[in-house]
Amino acid sequence: MIVNITKVPMQIKNAIVVHESVFFDMDVIPRRMILQIGSWRREVEVELSSDITKNVIALSNQMHVPFDFPENIPFDVTMTNRVIHVGPVIGLIAFREEREMDLHAIQKFKDYVVNYVNLRGLLYICAADSISFSNQTVKGYVYQPDQKSDQPSFQLSTFPLPDVFINKVRLDEPVVEQLISSHGEKLVNSYVWNYRELEEWLSSYPSISSHLLSMNQLTTLENLDEMLNMHETVVLKPIHLRSNCMEYKVKKLKNRYQWINQWKVYSYSKDEATVLFSKLIPEEPFLIQPLISSINKEGNSYILRAFLQKNRSKHWRCSAIVSDFKGAEEFSLTGQEILRNAFHLNEREVFLKEQEIITLCHSVCQLIEKCYGTYADLCVTMKIDEDLNLWLLDIDPLYEHQMLSESIQDQQTYFNIVTAPLEYAKSLSGFL
To answer: Could you say which DSSP state residue 244 is in?
Structure first.
């Protein structure tokens, strides 16, 4: 059943009015029920009326609620025993601090609501510090469907704690603890791992460990030299930050170290490198990995990204595999195109390799969820070497969907991926 919520004048403080047909199939018509909106609950008296519109739940104007009811929001309703559950209410934690949150910043999330007609309910975007656990409310921007406008409309207001939180930022531990206490398994992306702990944990599973690169923490220049004695080129990347601008390829040429990032090549003597290390390592711990050659015979290099998601089915599925292709020009290809064009595989070989990628990603996602909590949207970054071996580089629960718009040419596929986590959140809320 789809309804709108409104308020009407009533003498009774905690009461609602619904159309009499709502309880038509019930043997016993309850007189007192528990109204649930998001995580907020209130026991209310139920009045039946033939005068009220069938798709409306009317609240007494005497009822005090600590949040706002936006107009024209369609809600789904479920009734279980004495509980009338109105929703879904989904909170997207997109910022760490409220001061970062304004209408301009909110607009980059407008693609999340392109499928709102099937989602319905209260969808708001908030910051970690705009959540008030003492008041059981959240300050944020709610999406308001407007039939007259092509552009999504958001309005700042106060709302109940949601049925489900989807986290898209790295949260401080005290905030995570409060969210776990209030929402438990209904907090999506509760924990964000770093490279090192993910590698250490996955390496204990033989089916996964064969796809992991050897990895050491960078502590001294001698530590780097040991790795360079075994590998011509290594990669340095910060343990905590997922940022290409902070990754370096390092190789040793005679008595100098060549450092390469995405913009520039640097050359250092041993003394200069020692000074650099004394500044770099205290700021951010780095890991050393061997560089996996992903350059085909045409001299092009690439990485693969698989997007593993859950939708309303609550099962993991691979929504897309894309590759950022770097040669004379930079562009994106699908996973099948890169396997076909870069490695010249035939159709059967492409199918088998793609199935190997999907099977590996499924296994990793299922393991992560058993270990770390509830997840529904993971970007798995990989490389394939010249011998067609598959190597896991990263698994990121906080990737930005803007990256998708640049890599996925088909707009409908892009929208399906962006909106899938909200479908999962709706299902997790108890609405199909």
So the answer is: G
The neighbour count for residue 276, using CB atoms within 10 Å, is: 15
Q: Which domain holds residue 304?
A: 297-399
Alpha carbons 187 and 182: distance in angstroms, whole number? 9
Q: Which residues of 61-71 are buried (b: 16+ CB within 10 A; e: fewer)?
A: eebeeebebee
Give the whole-angstrom CA distance, residue 421 versus residue 425.
6
**Do 97 and 182 belong together in one domain?**
yes
Examine residue 208 and state whether it is found in any structural domain, yes or no. Answer: no
Q: Count the Cβ atoms, other than its own, within 10 Å of residue 151.
A: 8
**CB-side neighbour CA atoms (13 Å) of 218:** 30
pLDDT in tens, the chain (432 residues): 888 888 888 888 889 888 878 775 566 677 889 999 999 999 999 888 888 888 888 888 888 888 887 778 899 999 888 899 998 999 999 999 999 999 999 988 989 998 888 889 999 999 999 999 999 999 999 998 875 666 668 889 999 999 999 999 999 999 999 999 999 999 999 888 888 888 888 888 988 999 988 888 888 888 888 888 888 888 888 877 665 557 788 888 888 888 887 778 888 888 888 888 777 776 778 888 888 766 554 545 678 899 999 988 899 999 999 887 554 455 567 788 888 887 888 999 999 999 999 999 999 999 998 888 999 999 999 988 878 889 998 899 998 887 777 777 778 888 999 999 999 999 999 998
Q: Is 122 part of any domain?
A: yes
Q: What is the number of other CB atoms lying within 10 angstroms of the CB of residue 121? A: 25
State the pTM of this model.
Answer: 0.88
DSSP states of 299-329 as a string? S-EEEEEEEEEE-TT-SEEEEEEEEEEESSS
* 324 and 380, same domain (yes or no): yes
With beta carbons less than 8 A apart as the criterion, state whether 241 and 298 touch. Answer: no
Of 117, 141, 119, the closest CA to residue 130 belongs to 141
